[in-house]
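User: I'm preparing a small set of examples for a lab meeting where we compare how different chains pack in three dimensions. I only have the primary sequence for this one, and I'd like the structure in C-alpha cell form so I can line it up with the others. Please keep the answer compact; I'll paste it straight into my notes.
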Amino acid sequence: MISPVEDFNGNGLYLFGKNKAANAKDQSLVVALHQGVIDSQTWLRVQYRLAENIQFGHRNNGKATWLSGLTKCTHCGYSMTGNRIKDKVFFRCSRKVNVGDCISSAIPAELVENQVWQAILEKVDELRGIHITQKNDADVRTNKLKLQLIKIDESIENLVSAIAEGNSVSVKLFSEKIACLDEERTAINEQLQKITVESTTINSDAILKLMEGELDFDEKHGIAKALIKKVLIAGRDEPLTVEWLF
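Assistant: Understood. Below is the C-alpha cell output for the 246-residue chain.
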C-alpha cells in the first residue's frame, strides 16, 4: 500500500503489478484522484465470489456437464469447468486457463462423470430407507443461533456508534472487537447452514426409484446437487474426491 491509510477516503484505487487475477503478490495499491464507483464491500464480495465460484469460458459451458458448479481443482481450489473441445468435453482448471499458474491437467468429463455417478449410486444405497426429519430439534437450535446473531449485530452497531461519537477508547481496540464479533457471526451462519442441510428430508428410496429409469441431463444434475457439496479433481491419473452434503 503506497498511499497512507488516511488517504483512503472513498476515491478509486489504482492497482499496479502482474497477475491481478491471481493474488496480491508484487502489486502496489495507490489511491486515485477520481471518485470511487463501487463501494469496497461490494467489490470485496465480488472478488471472493470470483475466487471461489466463477465459471470462466463460454456461456454454454455450464451445460456441457451435469456436474456444472460442483467441481473444484484439488491443487488450487478454483472451479473446474466443462469446456467443449470439438466433440468432447474436458474439465479444465479455470485458474490455469485464465492465469496459467496451476499444475492441474485437463481430464475428460466422461471419465469424471462415470466415477461420480458410481459414487452417487453407492451413497444412495448407503442411505436406503433413511429419512432425515429432525425438524423440531433443528428449529430449536436455529432459533437460539438467530438470537445470538441479533445480539452480535446489536453489539457491532453499538461499537460503530461509539467510534462515530469519538469515544475515548482507541479506534483500533473497537475495530478489533468488531472483527471478533464478525468472526462469531460468520461461524454462527455456518452452523445455520449446516442445520439446514441436516434437517432436509432425504428420501433415498425415491432417488433410487428415479434412477431405475433413463435419467436426462437435468435429472442427473438435480440428484448431484441434492447430494454433493463438491467434487475435487486433480488430474487424469489421480483419484477424485467427492464431498457430500451429509
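A couple of notes for your slides: The chain has seven helices and eight strands. Strands lie at 11-16, 28-35, 71-73, 80-85, 88-93, 107-108, 228-233, 241-244.

User: Perfect, thanks.
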